[in-house]
Amino acid sequence: MNENTLRQSRGDLYRLLSRLYLLEVDEELLAALFGMELPKECSFEDMKEGYDLIGAWLHDAKGRLEGAGTEKERMQREVLDDLAVDYARIFLSAGVAQGKAAFPFESVYTSRQHLLMQESRTDVIAKYAAKGVTPGKNLYRVPEDHLGLLLSYMAILCEEDAPIKEQQEFLKEHLLNWVSAFTADVAKYASTDFYRGLGKLTKGFLAMERSLLDDK
Question: Using CB atoms within 10 A of its CB, is residue 194 exposed (0-12), middle (13-18) or buried (19+)?
Protein backbone atom coordinates (compact mmCIF):
# COMPACT_ATOMS: atom_id res chain seq x y z
CA MET A 1 0.00 0.00 0.00
CA ASN A 2 1.54 3.33 -1.03
CA GLU A 3 1.63 6.36 1.27
CA ASN A 4 -1.31 8.16 -0.35
CA THR A 5 -3.52 5.08 -0.17
CA LEU A 6 -2.52 4.43 3.43
CA ARG A 7 -3.21 8.03 4.40
CA GLN A 8 -6.64 7.91 2.75
CA SER A 9 -7.44 4.58 4.40
CA ARG A 10 -6.49 5.93 7.83
CA GLY A 11 -8.56 9.07 7.30
CA ASP A 12 -11.58 7.06 6.14
CA LEU A 13 -11.54 4.88 9.25
CA TYR A 14 -11.14 7.88 11.53
CA ARG A 15 -14.17 9.47 9.86
CA LEU A 16 -16.27 6.32 10.12
CA LEU A 17 -15.48 5.93 13.82
CA SER A 18 -16.18 9.63 14.34
CA ARG A 19 -19.62 9.32 12.75
CA LEU A 20 -20.49 6.24 14.79
CA TYR A 21 -19.74 8.03 18.07
CA LEU A 22 -21.41 11.32 17.19
CA LEU A 23 -24.85 9.99 16.21
CA GLU A 24 -26.96 6.86 16.22
CA VAL A 25 -26.88 4.69 13.09
CA ASP A 26 -29.53 5.81 10.61
CA GLU A 27 -31.00 4.10 7.54
CA GLU A 28 -28.39 5.54 5.16
CA LEU A 29 -25.43 4.56 7.33
CA LEU A 30 -26.86 1.08 7.94
CA ALA A 31 -27.08 0.53 4.18
CA ALA A 32 -23.48 1.70 3.79
CA LEU A 33 -22.33 -0.64 6.55
CA PHE A 34 -24.10 -3.57 4.87
CA GLY A 35 -22.14 -2.79 1.71
CA MET A 36 -18.73 -2.70 3.38
CA GLU A 37 -16.28 -5.58 3.20
CA LEU A 38 -14.69 -5.73 6.64
CA PRO A 39 -11.13 -7.08 6.98
CA LYS A 40 -10.89 -10.74 7.95
CA GLU A 41 -7.37 -10.53 9.29
CA CYS A 42 -5.59 -7.91 11.35
CA SER A 43 -2.32 -7.97 13.26
CA PHE A 44 -3.88 -6.06 16.17
CA GLU A 45 -6.11 -8.42 18.14
CA ASP A 46 -8.56 -5.78 19.39
CA MET A 47 -9.13 -4.59 15.83
CA LYS A 48 -9.75 -8.13 14.62
CA GLU A 49 -12.19 -8.81 17.46
CA GLY A 50 -13.92 -5.52 16.72
CA TYR A 51 -14.33 -6.27 13.04
CA ASP A 52 -15.51 -9.80 13.84
CA LEU A 53 -18.16 -8.58 16.30
CA ILE A 54 -19.43 -5.86 13.99
CA GLY A 55 -19.37 -8.19 11.00
CA ALA A 56 -21.35 -10.87 12.84
CA TRP A 57 -23.93 -8.32 13.96
CA LEU A 58 -24.30 -6.94 10.42
CA HIS A 59 -24.61 -10.44 8.97
CA ASP A 60 -27.37 -11.29 11.43
CA ALA A 61 -29.19 -7.98 10.88
CA LYS A 62 -28.99 -8.33 7.11
CA GLY A 63 -30.35 -11.85 7.36
CA ARG A 64 -33.27 -10.61 9.45
CA LEU A 65 -34.12 -8.00 6.83
CA GLU A 66 -33.79 -10.38 3.88
CA GLY A 67 -36.11 -12.86 5.58
CA ALA A 68 -38.70 -10.27 6.57
CA GLY A 69 -40.57 -10.22 3.25
CA THR A 70 -43.37 -7.64 3.32
CA GLU A 71 -42.37 -6.79 6.89
CA LYS A 72 -38.94 -5.55 5.83
CA GLU A 73 -39.67 -1.91 6.63
CA ARG A 74 -40.90 -2.76 10.12
CA MET A 75 -37.94 -5.05 10.72
CA GLN A 76 -35.51 -2.34 9.62
CA ARG A 77 -37.05 0.04 12.15
CA GLU A 78 -36.58 -2.61 14.82
CA VAL A 79 -32.92 -3.10 13.87
CA LEU A 80 -32.27 0.65 13.97
CA ASP A 81 -34.23 0.98 17.22
CA ASP A 82 -32.09 -1.73 18.82
CA LEU A 83 -28.97 0.23 17.95
CA ALA A 84 -30.48 3.56 19.01
CA VAL A 85 -31.46 2.17 22.41
CA ASP A 86 -27.99 0.74 22.92
CA TYR A 87 -26.35 4.00 21.81
CA ALA A 88 -28.43 5.95 24.31
CA ARG A 89 -27.67 3.48 27.09
CA ILE A 90 -23.91 3.41 26.50
CA PHE A 91 -23.14 7.03 25.73
CA LEU A 92 -26.03 9.01 27.26
CA SER A 93 -26.81 6.92 30.35
CA ALA A 94 -30.42 6.51 29.21
CA GLY A 95 -32.37 3.98 31.26
CA VAL A 96 -29.53 3.18 33.68
CA ALA A 97 -28.36 4.53 37.01
CA GLN A 98 -27.32 8.18 36.87
CA GLY A 99 -23.69 8.63 35.95
CA LYS A 100 -23.27 5.04 34.76
CA ALA A 101 -22.22 5.24 31.13
CA ALA A 102 -19.26 5.50 28.77
CA PHE A 103 -19.53 9.26 28.29
CA PRO A 104 -17.48 10.01 25.13
CA PHE A 105 -15.66 13.09 26.41
CA GLU A 106 -11.97 13.36 27.21
CA SER A 107 -12.66 15.67 30.16
CA VAL A 108 -14.80 13.06 31.89
CA TYR A 109 -11.94 10.56 31.86
CA THR A 110 -9.01 12.89 32.48
CA SER A 111 -10.26 15.51 34.95
CA ARG A 112 -9.97 14.88 38.67
CA GLN A 113 -13.71 15.23 39.28
CA HIS A 114 -14.73 13.53 36.01
CA LEU A 115 -16.53 16.61 34.73
CA LEU A 116 -17.21 18.10 31.30
CA MET A 117 -15.65 21.31 30.01
CA GLN A 118 -12.29 20.88 31.72
CA GLU A 119 -8.66 21.49 30.72
CA SER A 120 -8.59 18.97 27.88
CA ARG A 121 -11.41 20.82 26.12
CA THR A 122 -9.51 24.10 26.38
CA ASP A 123 -6.43 22.50 24.87
CA VAL A 124 -8.21 20.93 21.91
CA ILE A 125 -10.03 24.20 21.17
CA ALA A 126 -6.61 25.85 20.87
CA LYS A 127 -5.36 23.09 18.57
CA TYR A 128 -8.46 23.31 16.36
CA ALA A 129 -8.09 27.09 16.16
CA ALA A 130 -4.40 26.88 15.26
CA LYS A 131 -5.35 24.59 12.39
CA GLY A 132 -8.25 26.80 11.37
CA VAL A 133 -10.87 24.07 11.77
CA THR A 134 -13.88 23.36 13.97
CA PRO A 135 -14.50 19.62 13.38
CA GLY A 136 -18.25 19.11 13.22
CA LYS A 137 -19.00 21.61 15.98
CA ASN A 138 -21.76 23.50 14.20
CA LEU A 139 -23.40 20.30 13.03
CA TYR A 140 -23.29 18.23 16.22
CA ARG A 141 -23.27 20.90 18.97
CA VAL A 142 -21.24 18.86 21.42
CA PRO A 143 -18.22 19.89 23.53
CA GLU A 144 -15.00 20.05 21.56
CA ASP A 145 -13.40 17.13 23.41
CA HIS A 146 -16.13 14.70 22.31
CA LEU A 147 -14.48 11.54 20.99
CA GLY A 148 -16.20 11.93 17.64
CA LEU A 149 -14.66 15.37 17.12
CA LEU A 150 -11.22 14.21 18.27
CA LEU A 151 -11.36 11.38 15.73
CA SER A 152 -12.56 13.80 13.05
CA TYR A 153 -9.58 16.04 13.77
CA MET A 154 -7.21 13.10 13.38
CA ALA A 155 -8.86 12.42 10.01
CA ILE A 156 -8.07 15.99 9.00
CA LEU A 157 -4.43 15.58 10.04
CA CYS A 158 -4.20 12.38 7.97
CA GLU A 159 -5.85 13.88 4.90
CA GLU A 160 -3.69 17.02 5.03
CA ASP A 161 -0.57 14.92 5.54
CA ALA A 162 0.26 16.88 8.68
CA PRO A 163 3.75 16.39 10.15
CA ILE A 164 4.14 13.02 11.88
CA LYS A 165 5.06 14.73 15.14
CA GLU A 166 1.81 16.71 15.09
CA GLN A 167 -0.21 13.55 14.54
CA GLN A 168 1.70 11.68 17.25
CA GLU A 169 1.22 14.43 19.80
CA PHE A 170 -2.52 14.72 19.27
CA LEU A 171 -2.97 10.95 19.32
CA LYS A 172 -1.02 10.55 22.56
CA GLU A 173 -2.25 13.67 24.34
CA HIS A 174 -5.95 13.48 23.48
CA LEU A 175 -6.83 9.89 22.57
CA LEU A 176 -4.46 7.25 23.94
CA ASN A 177 -4.50 8.90 27.38
CA TRP A 178 -8.15 7.92 28.03
CA VAL A 179 -9.69 5.78 25.29
CA SER A 180 -8.61 2.48 26.87
CA ALA A 181 -10.65 3.25 30.00
CA PHE A 182 -13.51 4.55 27.86
CA THR A 183 -13.68 1.44 25.66
CA ALA A 184 -13.63 -0.75 28.78
CA ASP A 185 -16.78 1.09 29.84
CA VAL A 186 -18.30 0.60 26.38
CA ALA A 187 -17.81 -3.14 26.83
CA LYS A 188 -19.41 -2.91 30.27
CA TYR A 189 -22.56 -1.09 29.16
CA ALA A 190 -23.13 -2.32 25.58
CA SER A 191 -25.81 -4.91 24.93
CA THR A 192 -25.23 -5.32 21.17
CA ASP A 193 -22.21 -6.86 19.51
CA PHE A 194 -22.22 -3.88 17.17
CA TYR A 195 -21.21 -1.47 19.92
CA ARG A 196 -19.03 -4.01 21.71
CA GLY A 197 -17.22 -4.34 18.40
CA LEU A 198 -17.01 -0.57 17.96
CA GLY A 199 -15.21 -0.24 21.29
CA LYS A 200 -12.76 -3.01 20.44
CA LEU A 201 -12.14 -1.63 16.96
CA THR A 202 -11.48 1.85 18.32
CA LYS A 203 -9.00 0.66 20.91
CA GLY A 204 -7.18 -1.57 18.41
CA PHE A 205 -7.08 1.04 15.67
CA LEU A 206 -5.56 3.67 17.94
CA ALA A 207 -2.96 1.15 19.11
CA MET A 208 -2.14 0.45 15.47
CA GLU A 209 -1.90 4.18 14.79
CA ARG A 210 0.58 4.61 17.65
CA SER A 211 2.72 1.81 16.25
CA LEU A 212 2.48 3.14 12.69
CA LEU A 213 3.38 6.71 13.59
CA ASP A 214 6.18 5.67 15.95
CA ASP A 215 7.76 3.68 13.11
CA LYS A 216 7.84 6.66 10.73
Answer: buried
